[in-house]
Here is the input.
Amino acid sequence: MRNVNQNAIQKTKVAIIGAGFGGLAMAIRLLQSQIKDFVILEKTNDVGGTWRENQYPGAACDVQSHMYSLSFAPKTDWSKRYAEADEIFDYIQDITEQYTLKDYCRFNHEVTHAEFDEQRNIWTVEFKDQPTLEAQFVIFASGPLHVPQVPHLKGIEKFKGKVFHSSQWDHDYDLSGKSVASIGTGGSAIQYIPEIAPEVKQLYVFQRTAAWVIPRDERKYSKLSKTLFKASNLYRQIHRSRLYWTNESRVVPIVQPQIMKYGQKLAEAFIRFQVKDKALAKKLTPDFVMGCKRILISNKYFPTFNRKNVELITDGVQEITENGIMTKDGKERQIDCLIYGTGFITDPRIYLKHFNCVGRNGIELKQAWKDGAESYYGISTKNFPNLFQLLGPNTILGHNSVIFMIESQVSYILQLIQTVDKTGTQAIEVKHDVQDQFNERVQEQLKGTVWQAGGCSSWYQAADGKNFSLWPTYTWRFWLETRKVNVADYNFISTTANVKNNAA
Ligand SMILES: Cc1cc2nc3c(=O)[nH]c(=O)nc-3n(C[C@H](O)[C@H](O)[C@H](O)COP(=O)(O)OP(=O)(O)OC[C@H]3O[C@@H](n4cnc5c(N)ncnc54)[C@H](O)[C@@H]3O)c2cc1C
Here is the structure.
């Protein structure tokens, strides 16, 4: 154990790290189960996570709002099929207020170190600037897409203009009349590019890999629909179920990429229909199977390239100069502003660089995951008793709402906590062989899917190609498998230092 001032230590039963959708969902379910001895540790000064951070122009979800919300905290008046960031952020604020979650939040608490004390079966949680905390259970809800990915561009330190990442958009900086370079063509970039193009003098879009972008359902919900959703819970649930099963049907072409080629033909036609210049349309057409990277939705992205003030650049960036950006062909373009639309660091081994998490026998999480992040249903990790995670390894999605996964995980974690309490033990740890077999199965299921066999490298994969992020199949299967904790999968630990197998 590291030296900490014992007098200053505060104690809690459950420490939740992160006040985004995950952390708040966990908190609500704890409250509903009469577990009130918990805190939500949040490094910033507000709730919201993704939707507090990503306020760039055009920011919106790409899963239908009635699905991209908590089933136990429904909102009946979503304005349209795919809500914008502001509306999602307001929804999060509303549920925070409804469940008085701010009473449990400790803002400006950035967790920097968590260590398991095997003698006492307690986690010690340390912060950047706050007193240490002890907790029986720690729940990571710190977000899979949270740490900006910023490429190191040669010469960037010389650049005299403005630079920011899409998730740290500087709204005080006026883009009108400016020459702007945008790097990346992922989920965020395809949303802000059409929004800023009419405003700027010149927009240079740097594309390394083209993105599959399909039409977006822009329909607003009518007054009548909203009234019916409010009046009839059944009607709203039927609507939500329809969205859910539509999204689930996308698993079919994902696991059988040969079917995907039919959808891909339509997506190719969409590009040709929207982009006037044939050569440009070709450049915007990806050379990998649709679905290998996240399929994006926008009706505005491709037409942006018909504008005279927008140029698509596929030559790599050579270096940044004082006032511009130089491509590998030696051409320099003068710019006032550089925007990184380069997404997020998704490999936990990299984003945990500045966060030490130490489990049993002094094992560090980074070290445990050195060959790729692995856990049991993205929740429990061997050697890390009472440490649970939301949206951990292999539980994010390419086809449906991650809120569905979060809800399944929250309910599973709640059962784990209740089981420990019920058995009179203090801690619970997933059996090593159970975790290993689970991961073998996941990797086996991923083989042959469009994510592995689609001919691209994506943020779903580590540098060695291992897919550490995606759930490989239907989400109803995840729900079914995690609906009830199988106590035989766990070892129970009590303070007398004995390890009980299959307790309960
Ligand atoms: C632009 C964008 C659009 C998206 N759209 C969709 C979509 O349409 N559908 C979908 O299913 N998913 C989407 N996602 C994925 C999205 O991340 C999840 O849907 C969801 O918001 C994750 O919630 P979370 O609570 O797990 O994480 P987050 O919302 O990222 O919240 C994590 C919180 O933890 C805090 N935190 C992190 N580290 C620490 C620390 N060390 N100490 C204390 N606090 C910490 C952060 O400040 C943050 O508030 C999108 C992501 C982005 C970036």
Q: What stands out?
A: Residues 500-504 have pLDDT under 50 and may be disordered. The longest helix spans residues 402-423. The longest strand covers residues 10-17.
